[in-house]
Design brief:
The protein has about 475 residues and is of the alpha+beta class. The chain has 15 helices and 16 strands. The strands form 4 sheets. It has a 9-stranded mixed beta sheet with strand order 2-6-7-10-1-11-12-13-14. Strands 5-4-15 form a 3-stranded antiparallel beta sheet, with no helix packed on it. Strands 3-16 form a two-stranded antiparallel ribbon. Helix 3 links the parallel strand 12 and strand 13. The model has no long low-confidence stretch (mean pLDDT about 95). Bound molecules: zinc ion. The site of zinc ion has 8 residues, from loops.
Length: about 475
C-alpha cells in the first residue's frame, strides 16, 4: 500500500465572533483594544449569584447566519453548561448549546478550481468565548475582556476530501459572514478561528479512521498546509502499523508540522446539562421571516448573476465577489461605463494591484468608481487610448482628480486626426528607410517596429487603429 491508496476525511469547526456591541450574557463592551480586564463584570467573571441575560442581537446575527448557511432554525433551542477547567474560564464551565442547537442541517456551495462543491453544515450553535491567558516565563496573566463575547460555532460534516477544498470552504464561510456583517472574519486577530478534524482511511473503506483535531490555525494558507502535513503524518502511521491517537494537535507554521497539545476529550467528559439560569430560547416563525428579509445577496448568488447578466468569465465573477465592497465597486464602475468586461479588467488589475502596493483596502480606494467608469467610457469612445488611460488612472489615484480634468489639463486626448498622423508617419518612414526597404522585401515583422516608432513620436497619444490603417497603406510598395 502507498499514499495513493488512502482517502482523507476532513471536517471544520469554525468559531465566528459575532459583531455585537455588548457581550452575549452581560452588558460589557466587546470592543477589541480596551485595557486589560476593563470590559468585565460579575456575570462574565463568574461571580456567585450573578445571572446571565441573553443578548437579542447575538441571536439575530446567529439566525441570519443560519439562514445564509441554508440551515433549519430550531424553534426552541437550549443553552447548556459545558464543564471544563481553564484559568481563563472563571465559571468552570462554558455556556454553549449541546443537543438542541439553534441552527442545523444546512449546506454551503462553493467553487474549487472551477468545480462546484457542496459541504453539509451539521449545526451552528451559539456559545460564549473564554478569556485569554498570556504566558510570561514563570508567571501568566489572565485578561477576561474576551470572556462572554458571543460566538457562533459552525460545524461542517466530514465531507471535505482535500486540504485545498477545506481552505476554500473556510474562505466561502468567511465571505458569507462578512457579507452578512455579523463577523469581521479576521483570522490573525482571532475573530474567526478554525479547528480542523482530519482522519484517513484506505480507499473503499466505509468506516472512518481515528480523527485528530488541529486547533486555532490563523490563516487560510496554514489551514491548507496543516491539513496536508497531517494527512501525510497519519498515512505514515498506518503504513508503519502505528496507532493514530485521538488527540488535539497544534500547527507550527515555522516548522510546518503539527504536534500534540492534549489528548482529546469526548463529549461525555464535559458533563453537559441545560443551564438552569437560562430559559430555552424560543424563536417564532415571524422573527425568522423578518431576519430572512434582511439577508443581502450572498457571494455565490452575486457571482452567478455577474456571469449571467454581464457575461463575465467565472474567474472574474468569483474574484470580484470575494468581498461585498469590491463587488459594489465593480457594479458602480460598470454602471458608469456600461462595459462590464472592461470594468472587471480595470478593477481586477489596476485597482487591486494599486491597493495591494499601497496596503489599502477597497474602502480606502482613492479613485471613486464613477471616475473609473467615466475614464473607461473615454477609452470606448476613442477620446483616449488604452495606453494613455494607464497614465490617467495613475494620476486619478494620486491626485483624486476627475478623468476629464486630467485629460484636458495634460493634453492627453487621443490623436485621431489623419493629416497630423500622416505627417508623423511620413517622417518616421523617412528616418527608417533601411527598415522600410527590408519590410518591403518581405520582413513582415518590422510592421510592429513602425507602429512602436509612431506611438513613441506621439507620446502614446496616437489612435492605434488609425496608425495601423495609415501605416499599412503607406508601407506598401
Ligand atoms: Zn460582563
Amino acid at each position: 500500500m502507498s499514499f495513493d491508496h488512502f482517502d482523507a476525511v476532513i471536517g471544520l469547526e469554525i468559531h465566528a465572533q459575532l459583531l455585537t456591541e455588548s457581550k452575549i450574557f452581560c452588558r460589557d463592551s466587546t470592543h477589541f483594544g480596551a485595557g486589560d480586564n476593563e470590559n468585565i463584570c460579575p456575570v462574565c467573571t463568574g461571580m456567585p449569584g450573578s445571572l446571565p441575560v441573553l443578548n437579542r442581537q447575538a441571536v439575530e446575527f446567529s439566525i441570519k447566519t443560519g439562514l445564509a448557511l441554508n440551515c433549519d432554525i430550531r424553534r426552541q433551542s437550549v443553552f447548556a453548561r459545558k464543564q471544563y477547567f481553564y484559568p481563563d474560564l472563571p465559571k468552570g464551565y462554558q455556556i454553549s448549546q449541546y443537543d438542541r442547537p439553534l441552527c442545523e442541517n444546512g449546506h454551503v456551495d462553493f467553487l474549487v478550481d472551477g468545480q462546484m462543491r457542496r459541504v453539509s453544515i451539521v449545526r451552528a450553535h451559539m456559545e460564549e468565548d473564554a478569556g485569554k491567558s498570556t504566558h510570561h516565563g514563570d508567571y501568566s496573566l489572565i485578561n477576561l475582556n474576551r470572556a462572554g463575547i458571543p460566538l457562533l460555532e459552525i460545524v461542517s460534516g466530514p465531507d471535505l476530501r482535500s486540504a485545498r477544498e477545506a481552505a476554500e470552504y473556510a474562505r466561502a464561510v468567511r465571505n458569507i459572514l462578512r457579507y452578512l456583517g455579523v463577523c469581521d472574519g479576521n483570522l490573525e486577530e482571532g475573530s474567526l478561528r478554525c479547528d480542523v478534524n482530519v482522519s484517513v482511511r484506505p480507499k473503499g473503506q466505509k468506516e472512518l479512521g481515528t480523527k485528530v483535531e488541529i486547533k486555532n490555525i490563523n490563516s487560510f494558507r496554514f489551514i491548507e498546509k496543516a491539513i496536508e502535513y497531517e494527512i501525510h503524518r497519519q498515512i505514515d502511521c498506518v503504513l508503519n502499523r502505528e496507532a493514530i491517537v485521538q488527540e488535539t494537535r497544534l500547527y507550527d507554521a515555522d516548522k510546518n508540522r503539527t504536534f500534540t497539545m492534549r489528548t482529546k476529550e469526548d463529549a461525555h467528559d464535559y458533563r453537559y446539562f441545560p443551564d438552569p439560569d437560562l430559559l430555552p430560547l424560543t424563536v417564532e416563525e415571524a422573527w425568522i421571516e423578518r431576519m430572512r428579509a434582511t439577508l443581502p445577496e450572498l457571494p455565490l448568488a452575486m457571482a452567478t448573476r455577474f456571469v449571467r447578466d454581464f457575461q463575465l468569465p467565472e474567474y472574474d465573477a468569483f474574484l470580484l465577489t470575494q468581498e461585498r465592497e469590491l463587488a459594489d465597486y465593480f457594479e458602480r464602475t460598470n454602471r458608469a461605463c456600461g462595459n462590464p468586461k472592461a470594468a472587471s479588467n480595470w478593477v481586477m488589475t489596476e485597482v487591486l494591484r494599486n491597493l495591494n502596493e499601497t496596503g489599502k483596502t477597497i474602502l480606502e480606494v482613492p479613485v471613486p468608481a464613477e471616475h473609473l467608469g467615466r475614464m473607461i467610457r473615454m477609452i470606448d469612445t476613442g477620446v483616449i487610448s488604452g495606453k494613455i488611460a494607464k497614465t490617467v488612472f495613475g494620476e486619478m489615484w494620486t491626485s483624486g482628480q476627475e478623468p476629464d480634468a486630467i485629460v484636458k489639463d495634460k493634453g492627453l486626448v487621443q490623436i485621431t486626426d489623419v493629416a497630423s498622423l500622416e505627417r508623423v508617419i511620413d517622417q518616421t518612414l523617412a528616418e527608417n528607410a533601411a527598415n522600410l526597404e527590408a519590410y518591403r522585401s518581405g520582413k513582415d515583422k518590422l510592421f510592429g517596429f513602425f507602429v512602436g516608432q509612431v506611438m513613441k513620436a506621439t507620446k502614446g497619444q496616437a489612435s492605434p487603429e488609425v496608425v495601423n490603417e495609415l501605416l499599412k497603406k503607406k508601407m506598401q510598395r
